[in-house]
Amino acid sequence: MCGICFCLHTQSTPLSIDYTPLNARGPDFQTQHGPISLTSNLYVTFAVSVLALRGYKQQQQPFIDEDGNILLLNGEIYEGALQISADDNDGVVLSQHLKRCSTDIDICNLISALEGCFAFIYFQKKTNSLYYGRDRLGRRSLLYSTETDPPSNIKMILSSVQLNNLSYTELDSNILHKLTVIEADHTFKIDFIPYVNRSIDRIVRDPPDTLLNELESNSEFQTVSKIFLNQLQNAVQRRVINIPSLCRQCKQFADSILRPLDGCQHAKLAILFSGGIDSTVLAALVDRVLPINEPIDLLNVAFFSAVSAPPADRQTGLQALTELNPERRWNFVKIDINLNELQHYRESIIKNVLYPCSTVLDDSIGSALWFAARGNGILHQDNIPYESLAEVLLSGLGADEQLAGYSRHRSTFQTGGWKALENELDMEMNRISKRNLGRDDRVISSLGKEGRFPFLDEQFVNYLHSIPIWLKADLRLARGIGEKYLLRYVARHYLSLEQSSKYPKRAIQFGSRIAKLESRKEKASDQCSRLTTTTNNNFMNDEE
Ligand SMILES: Nc1ncnc2c1ncn2[C@@H]1O[C@H](COP(=O)(O)OP(=O)(O)OP(=O)(O)O)[C@@H](O)[C@H]1O
Ligand SMILES: NC(=O)CC[C@H](N)C(=O)O
Known about the structure:
single chain; alpha+beta; Glutamine Phosphoribosylpyrophosphate, subunit 1, domain 1; Rossmann fold; 2 domains; seven-stranded mixed beta sheet; six-stranded antiparallel beta sheet; 19 strands; globular; disordered C terminus; binds adenosine-5'-triphosphate; binds glutamine; amino-acid biosynthesis; ATP binding; Asn_synthase; glutamine amidotransferase; nucleotide-binding
């Protein structure tokens, strides 16, 4: 994942900014560009770090076109509105399209039409304007601070992660931002231009009385389940084709070539793998599109106290492994973490990358995700230490928010019926960037890796949005059956995941047992003191 940043500052002298957290996101290449003078006392300096994933050769940034326009891109743009061949770099293609844009509307239309997970900064030279934003779901982090920093004469900073200990806010997704300078008084203003809405309207009609399991042979359900499978398969495919054919280690010796014909033998793709229905379906779908000789890492994190038995996710993970294609090499990585290790890495790294997220829930999800994504553990099959070298990670996030997977959805349905449930799911998708995605991106990217979310693919999300809720879930049916019914059906009927299709949801903080490790009596929404204060845990001992 790349790190992108611009600073608006009042003197042309070099900035005193420590870019270390930004650079961690892009281990392949780092640079700064500027300062560029906007007025006689307002300058902009860009910084970027690149994790090169797309195109035939590693592509450096920023992209500067013949007119002097500058683009910084973090993330992925998939073929859709733009034609991007396997050997093209998505940023190069976007920069060419942006160059043809004259007005705000041109730029907004272009950005709104993109498919993919991205954050970007674009300096349009002829208008002296900066455009910036995140994809509409907010799958990449972008923070801003307008806190003044006298030593570095900063007026504003926009960055993927916190820099210089200033206080930051997450940028709204779903909006294009435009910063223009006001020449007369050397100040600036920011305009907000909403992205063009591209979601398909839902067909409004009355729900049937029949339970969803009695509708399985109904032709509408059959059609929906086939399209659903097809859409999810395509979403997975978009995210796994064209990844480098070299792992992060072998990439270093390849003279910038990302996809030589003979790739390395290591896994280039990993799945954050709880063994629950969401991540197991992803594994089965990846298996259908990646060549059979490609190994895949399955990263499974579990937190242990001295006496505890393996938590639920370890058990479901190993069980799900037995349902996956035995012809493929699946590297099931057991990532076992104890209290000392958790406290050490939380204090030294994790709490900084979580910022500005700071609740108890952010702490437990973010910490579990960090250890899972790091991928250091024991290889289950061979019982030897193993470090995942894959730079692209798939996550099953987003299924529950669209298919009514959380237990809170049951209470909503019981009190308010189908309409209330549908409204709640809409609300959850609207807040997913603020609640999950910015944080998860900062966590995974801090390890120089990139998280991808097939359940949040635009085409898939639009399709799911267009079909009525009672074809997706039926919360009159029991736990482990009714929630995410459509996904469970597809898993059982088309992917042979008989056992895995029946697991009830266990969110990462419970399934991995991180929430129990410190056995504190806290509410998930409380501010987490472990993230906001410095403790003396910044060392490791062997007592656990
Ligand atoms: N213990 C774990 N180890 C590794 N990755 C995990 C673990 N738990 C969850 N994840 C990853 O995080 C994603 C979102 O987690 P969430 O807490 O929503 O679990 P979930 O909805 O129950 O997903 P799943 O059905 O895959 O278990 C999962 O789909 C999976 O990719
Ligand atoms: N890591 C990223 O954000 C990737 C940027 C761009 N898609 C590339 O592959 O070069």
